């Protein structure tokens, strides 16, 4: 896949993720605000508010086990955004399949989308091949 096609596909995935996060956040605001259809019968006392439901939009923390590069896209063909040190904690949103990397005795194609919009190869992270991030990017 060419770099332009990879970047376009990555932008679509990021756009879909942002749409889903925005939709979930809007739904949480509506639920928390107690928006409901008006009752047909008038109540003598104060209206009982429904309990707010929590939508889990929290990022997950990942930790590097070795120094490495954070990139602007999910393959080594993308530019380096910045470098991280071993044992550095980062905020992650989800994981996805990207370009294969063979380094430090590890070979796979799993990448993690960080909360800052950049990507780190899962082989640099402690835990499983996606740094124990449970959410796949959609």
What does the model show?
With 138 residues, this protein is of the alpha+beta class. The protein contains one helix and six strands, in the order αββββββ. A hairpin with a 2-residue loop joins strand 4 and strand 5. The two termini are 19 Å apart.
Question: How would a crystallographer describe the biggest sheet?
Answer: 6 strands, antiparallel
Percent range of helical residues = 10-25%
Please state the structural category.
Answer: alpha+beta
Terminal Cα span? 19 Å
Give a nutshell description of this structure.
This protein is α+β, with helices and mostly antiparallel strands and 138 residues long. It is built from one helix and six strands, in the order αββββββ.
Keywords:
single chain; 138 residues; alpha+beta; six-stranded antiparallel beta sheet; 6 strands
Question: How are the secondary structure elements laid out?
Answer:
Blueprint: H1 3-32, E1 60-63, E2 68-71, E3 80-84, E4 89-103, E5 106-114, E6 119-121
Antiparallel strand pairs: 1-4, 2-3, 2-6, 4-5, 5-6
